[in-house]
TrEMBL record:
Native organism taxonomy: Bacteria, Bacillati, Actinomycetota, Actinomycetes, Pseudonocardiales
Keywords annotated in UniProt: ATP-binding, Kinase, Nucleotide-binding, Transferase
Family: Belongs to the thymidylate kinase family.
GO cellular component: cytosol
Domain named Thymidylate kinase-like: residues: 7-189
GO MF annotations, alphabetized: ATP binding; dTMP kinase activity
Keyword RNA-binding found: no
Species annotation: Allokutzneria albata (Kibdelosporangium albatum)
Descriptive protein name: Thymidylate kinase
NCBIfam families on file: PRK07933.1
Keyword Hydrolase applies: no
SUPFAM superfamilies in UniProt: P-loop containing nucleoside triphosphate hydrolases
One of the protein's GO biological processes: dTTP biosynthetic process
């Protein structure tokens, strides 16, 4: 059985870059890896509905925090069997965003912290009702909100199809979300958390040591 490792952080924190570096390092050590990223845009109807809502194409749906949370959770539920199959085939399964993203962003939207009702509800729905695979560990990329915002703005201006959505352009939301992430890490919510400085180049070897425990 492989290990399920989740990479979390704000939009623009560098999750994709970290995942690339970690994948190479693990391969150099002779380990097999596979990757998932949520939402699964272009693959899941729920993810595509999320995109439509985030770009204001579904009326007021985006304003309904619990409604959006259900869409994110349904996207992951649709992938649960595939993740379990990968855990049987690979040494490491890396996931870019998982249920902690739902907990952090939705709590921040409601101006709650990690001890509030939303975080508890997300855990009950995604791990309880939907029976998603439980992560073995989380890696949280910590970056200043201003740095993350600058990165998403640059990405939107240089990569086709990467226009910023309503969450990415809301600086207050991003700041509140960062605080919830920190609290989740302090609690070791669901599984152990490791906080990584995402402001500079990551040390892939050190991260691999953490992942392998």
């Amino acid at each position: 059985m492989g290990r399920l490792i989740v990479i979390e952080g704000l939009d623009g924190s560098g999750k994709r870059t970290l995942t690339d570096a970690l994948t190479r390092e693990l391969a150099d050590r002779g380990l097999t890896t596979t990757r998932w990223a949520f939402p699964r845009y272009g693959e899941s109807v729920h993810a595509d509905l999320i995109s439509d809502a985030m770009h204001n194409r579904l009326g007021p749906l985006v304003d309904t925090v619990y409604g959006m949370a259900v869409l994110y959770a349904l996207d992951r539920q649709g992938a649960a069997a595939g993740i379990r199959a990968d855990l049987e085939k690979f040494d490491i399964v890396l996931i870019d965003r998982y249920l902690a993203s739902n907990a952090a962003y939705c709590a921040a939207r409601l101006h709650e912290d990690a001890h509030g009702d939303m975080v508890r509800w997300v855990r009950e729905v995604e791990l309880g009702r939907f029976d998603l695979p439980v992560p073995d560990a989380h890696l949280l990329l910590r970056v200043p909100v201003e740095v993350a915002a600058a990165r998403t703005a640059h990405r939107a201006g240089t990569e086709a199809g990467r226009e910023r959505d309503s969450y990415e352009t809301d600086g207050g939301l991003q700041a509140r979300c960062a605080k919830v992430y920190e609290q989740l890490a302090e609690q070791n919510w669901v599984s152990p958390w490791h906080v990584v400085d995402g402001s500079d180049a990551v040390d892939a070897a050190a991260l691999a040591d953490l992942v392998l425990g």
